[in-house]
Amino acid sequence: MDMEYFLELFFSGLTRGSIYALIALGYTMVYGIIQLINFAHGEIYMIGAFVALIVAGVCTIYGLSGFAILILAAAIAILYAAAYGYTLEKIAYRPLRGSPRLSPLISAIGMSIFLQNYVLLAQTPDYLPFPRLIPSFAFMDPVAHIIGSAELVILVTTLVTMVLLTLLIKKTRVGKAMRATQQDLSMARLVGINVDRVISLTFVIGSVLAAIGGVLVASYIGQVNFYIGFLAGVKAFTAAVLGGIGSIPGAVLGGLIIGWSESFAAGYFSSDYEDILTFVLLVVILIVRPAGILGKVRKQKV
Amino acid sequence: MTDKKHKLLEVKGLTMDFGGLRAVDSVSLTVHEGEIAALIGPNGAGKTTFFNCVTGIYTPTSGDILLHPKGLATRRLNGLKPNKVTEMGLARTFQNIRLFSGMTVLENVMIGRHCRTYSGIFRSIIRNRSVREEEQEIVETSYRLLEKVGLEKFVNEFARNLPYGAQRRLEIARALATDPLLLLLDEPAAGMNPYETSELDQLICRISEEEQIAILLIEHDMKLVMKISNPIFVMEYGKKIAQGSPLEIRDNPKVIEAYLGEEVDA
Amino acid sequence: MVREFKQSLLIALWFVFLTFPLMVVRVNTIENIVVWRWENILWVAIGAFLLSYCWRYMLARRRQQSKKAEEGIDTRGPLQAALDNVQLRNRAMAVLLVLAVIFPLVFDTYQTNIMVTALIFVVLGLGLNIGVGLAGLLDLGYVAFFGVGAYTYAILNANFDLGFWIVLPIGGVLGCLFGVVLGFPILRLRGDYLAIVTLGFGMIFKVVMENWETLSKGPSGIANIDRPGLFGLEMTLAQSTVYIYYIMIALVVLTIIVTNRLKNSRVGRAWIALREDEIACVAMGIDMARTKLSAYALGAFWAGMVGVLFAAKTTFINPAGFTFMQSAIILSIVVLGGMGSILGVILGAFILVLLPEYLRAFSEYRMLVFGAAMTLMMIFRPQGLISNLRQIYQYKGSKEKAAHDG
Ligand SMILES: Nc1ncnc2c1ncn2[C@@H]1O[C@H](COP(=O)(O)OP(=O)(O)OP(=O)(O)O)[C@@H](O)[C@H]1O
Ligand SMILES: [Mg+2]
After folding, report:
1. In chain A, what are the domains?
2. Do C316 and C172 belong together in one domain?
3. Is the domain of B113 the same as that of B10?
């Protein structure tokens, strides 16, 4: 039980958790507004990672190198993830407004399967190594056995992203419109908010966050394949539920809890059951407190 | 006179909070057997919430809801699940129509029979004689109820395809199918034209007379309320502010201020 | 006209942009090769252009149909109308049954084997249909119950030498038991949460089977499971396949009868009502927890039973056979065929199992098409290929009764 090992697990949990949180934000924001589990959100994350891989791969092969590639790859990945998220909403969810609750969910599952197989067929079923783009910073050397450079980059990026997101939601006009729509969709429409635009925007923002997560994970873990979105998506969704779906701080908290519990469980016990730990957590939290840790219990109006 | 009537539903100090909002604030009221009582009040007064508490959809924050079925022991309804409340003899309709839209009109009413019939999974698979008889009983009873509310020409139509007024009546038929002692109607005339409304008031009177069912109704249509109901309870901001006969209510200054005044102004 | 053309052109452009990195570029970061597949731009453009026309047409049609339905006009197609005719439908079923019975006499073992697989999925579809189609409980981990049945037989057979016929009911009961135990705490959850939790159960089952070596032999699975016996008779592989085929036919017929009876019973109506509106349902005196649990557990029962048969058929099972994708396939059978519709689910199972089997070229694109189909069905034909039959009841009514009495 030495401290260093504990800290190492702590930081790796924090890193993972912050990435789950990034993805969870997309779930939570979409759910908050249209009460849909965007099952295909994990696939957007995967597409983000894949596009980044393609850009980075092409750049490396044509002789570019270094940190600049990472920025370029991330930018293009974000652009594409946003485009996919936007299109997804338009095709698969918008025509289903006002239909029974399960219809859009089934549609989302369909899209998730479709996108996975689209990438599988268009690219490859194999894992592809992601080029190492995050350099090792010299100033990190003394603590490198506890927290690596990549982890630092991830943590800083996530932090900055979240601050920006909070500012966007709290301070800007669109943010206000989003909050209003989340409170009461039909009321928001009545007071002249273009609800369709707000929903599209929510998908776009969620996708951007997922893509950032995707790029970070890909460069951290070092490989990508068409299937990574599924499990990450489910875990991130669990994080959102755990923290209280619809709540942005809740998503972050949920992500961190899951990241830490995975990291510590794997570090101190065994990693055999790592992937299902999340589900056990999910089942327990839903039974004990369905609204999540920070979620408000809302009674359905009758 | 009134003292002799048998108390059926007795609500004492019912309170319901939503977060910081007190939607129903210690409301007490009593409905006697054979009465058509009305609950009125401006929008947002807490009438529907009151219904939801009484029927078990919400668990009230505090207060007592007692049902005194004639000849049986008194039952406390707070905290019971809605289906138990319905079994005890309270049936309701909804302000925003909640029919089983993908089922036929007849099937909607048949669902109401559920809590008065017994066949379970195994017997339904075997489908022996007693099951078939029970099934037929459900169908006949339901059909008769449809005749009663005047929907027999729609029997096999999907509920969602019915005109609005007919949907409201179907909700009443479905509630009646549960053999209630007390029927709670949440704005049964909302969205109806004057002709439909007058048909509805006849229907409500008929149900009260023929079936010996007490009725408590929420309604904004004052003409209807004044015509058929006695007593009338008035709510405003979650509180009961008045109760009495239509005449008393009409002359009550508080009510005029809270409710009727509002309409006169408009 | 011109506007539509322009719009489609824009959509085509958009999709060219959207698919560019994934469809055109292919990098291999292991060997550092980039392949540029420029021709794909053309295909994407043409495809998106044409599809956008279809999309618009279908949306317009959907609007028309819903308008017609509002006015009470019959919008059924000729096939649906024919199927709504009970007499015709019964005759069709009889013909199908005869065809099913003579099938193995006409076709060879290979074909029969494929047919058995299709029939397994028919039962799975019908079982899931009880939960998803009738009661509206979206179960994304249904394959776990199938796995419970399969592992029950495999383990009991390997360790205690129990035969197929004894384990068949045990598998069903155990599946059912799992359904009750898992369902009990979670069934009060809202529909979409329930879906995710059941998805979790599916995954938990797989991971447990992978790691609990002593029980399940881990990822390598259990082999040499006995085929079904027939009074100790020695059977060749071909004979055994035919035998399994007939067992499967019997199981399908049993499932159809049971689900059909339940659907038109007091319990079945309660399921459907629950799907339509939970709050109205409880307000009408239906016990939600019990009703949901019965639907969930009964669905699990069929999965458990057919799981036993699956293990006996393949004689080898491992955790990799019980993935989310299997659950998704079963779900798409129900969605495609028509939620709540027995005939629809049967048709759905045949399409989804046989199509990839006989169109080899198609099998690669199988999941791609299934995924797209699920979304498209939800948008354009939520009732599925064959929609649920409207139940018509016989009644006398008070007027006729009066006439009788008088
Ligand atoms: N589930 C709920 N959660 C939070 N607040 C609620 C809920 N249901 C009702 N309220 C609030 O309680 C108050 C009373 O609402 P209620 O629906 O009971 O009014 P009402 O008298 O039926 O009005 P109306 O005539 O418009 O139907 C309102 O302010 C409403 O916003
Ligand atoms: Mg109301």
Report:
1. 2-288 (1.10.3470)
2. yes
3. no
pLDDT at B168: 94
Structure tokens at B105: 């009109």
Gap between the Cα atoms of C343 and C382, Å rounded:
16
Alpha carbon distance B112, B91 (integer Å): 9
Please state the atom number of ligand 1 nearest to the C-alpha of residue A300: 1
Report the CATH number at residue B145. Answer: 3.40.50.300
In the structure, which protein residues have their CB atom closer than 6 angstroms to any atom of ligand 1?
Answer: A 299, 301; B 18, 21, 23, 41, 43-49, 95
In this structure, are C209 and C275 located in the same domain? yes
- C175 CA to middle of ligand 2, Å? 45
Least CA distance to B122: which residue of chain C? C262
C142 band by pLDDT with thresholds 50, 70 and 90: very high
Residue C29 at interface with chain A, using a CB cutoff of 8 Å: yes
* Residue B216, H or E segment: strand B214-218
Q: Helix C342-358 crosses helix C237-263 at what angle (to 10 degrees)? A: 150
ipTM above 0.85, yes or no: yes
Question: Is residue C271 scored above 80 in pLDDT?
Answer: yes
Q: Which residues of A touch C28 (CB under 8 A)?
A: 57, 124, 128
Q: Which residues pair with B230 in a beta bridge?
A: B36
Mean local confidence (pLDDT), C56-78 = 79
Phi, psi (deg, nearest 5) at residue A173: -65, -45
If you write DSSP's letter for every residue of C59-128 in order, what string do you get?
HHHHHHHHHHHHTT-----HHHHHHHSHHHHHHHHHHHHHHHHHHHHHS-HHHHHHHHHHHHHHHHHHHH
Residues of chain B with C-beta less than 8 angstroms from the C-beta of A296: 19
B4 plus B36 within the same structural domain: yes
Q: Does one domain contain both C149 and C114?
A: yes
- Cβ contacts of A31 within 8 Å, gap of 6 or more: A37, A38, A240, A245, A246
Q: Domain tally for chain B?
A: 2
The length of chain C, given as a count of residues: 406
**What's the rounded Cα separation, in Å, for the pair B104 and C329?**
31
- Chains touching A, CB cut-off 8 Å, 3+ pairs: B, C
Q: Nearest CA to CA, how far is A3 from chain B (Å)? A: 44
- Could you give the CA distance from residue C145 to residue A70 in angstroms, rounded to a whole number? 45
The helix-helix angle for C109-129 and C86-106 (nearest 10°) equals 150
Q: Which residues of C touch B95 (CB under 8 A)?
A: none
Asked if C238 and C109 touch (Cβ cutoff 8 Å), the reply is yes
The dihedral over CA atoms of C41, C47, C51, C52, expressed in degrees to the nearest 10, equals 30
pLDDT tens for each residue of chain A, 302 residues long: 588 889 889 998 999 999 999 999 999 999 988 888 899 999 999 999 999 999 998 988 887 777 788 889 999 999 999 999 999 999 999 999 888 888 899 999 999 999 999 999 999 888 998 888 777 777 777 777 778 888 888 899 999 999 999 999 899 998 899 888 888 888 888 888 899 999 999 999 999 999 999 999 888 888 899 999 988 898 898 899 888 888 888 999 999 999 999 999 888 887 777 777 888 888 888 888 888 888 777 777 77
**Which of C273, C393, C396 comes nearest B106 by C-beta?**
C393
Shortest alpha-carbon distance between residue A91 and chain C (Å)? 9
Of A296, A299, A302, the CB nearest to B94: A302
More confident residue, C389 or B178: B178
Which ligand 1 atom is at minimum distance from the Cα of B47?
21
Q: Taking the CA atoms of C349, C355, C360 and C365 in sequence, report the sign of the dihedral they define.
A: negative
> Are residues B18 and B59 in contact, defined by beta-carbon separation less than 8 angstroms?
no
Dihedral angle computed from the Cα positions of residues C144, C147, C149 and C153, in that order, rounded to the nearest 10 degrees: -160
